[in-house]
Amino acid sequence: MFDPKARGQNLDTQEIEYAIRKFNNLIDKNKEKLAYSDFKEGVNKGLDIARYNFGDHIEKFDLFSSKENQTTKIQNLQNEYNLLIDTLKIGKPGCSADCLEGIYEGLEKSKIIFGEFIKEFV
What DSSP designation does 9 have? Predict the structure, then answer.
């Protein structure tokens, strides 16, 4: 596996791109294909918000370290991701109350998706 210490603590660009692509694919698989309501459109928006925030903050996640045992590492990464999502400030995005509720549902759904991602990735 990739060792960031071998490269002066810099994460390898290919490893980062692979992780982002893998997470994005899981997000896409879980999006509502027929978002025919404001709520379902909101869920998709929430998943997109989660996707972009993961990509923007991926270097904060210690995905490539092997210092911890796998169970501890998975739990720590899940906690870090949940904290990232829980601290997002969602303003009035100019949509209905149903859409806003859907956004929050999508963000919560992304936590489950991240759990699947990290179990496969680690």
Answer: T
25-75 pLDDT, tens digit per residue, is 999 999 988 878 999 999 999 999 999 999 999 988 888 777 778 888 899
CB count within 10 Å of CB 91 equals: 6
CA distances, 38 to each of 33, 55, 95, 118 (Å): 13, 26, 8, 30
Q: How far apart are CA 5 and CA 20, in angstroms?
A: 21
CA–CA–CA angle 58, 61, 65 (5° rounding): 125
44, 32 contact by CB (below 8 A): yes
Cβ contact 45:106 at 8 Å: yes
- Which residues, in sequence order, are CB contacts of 97 under 8 Å at separation 6+? none
* Residue 101 confidence class, pLDDT cut points 50, 70, 90: very high
- pTM comes to 0.84
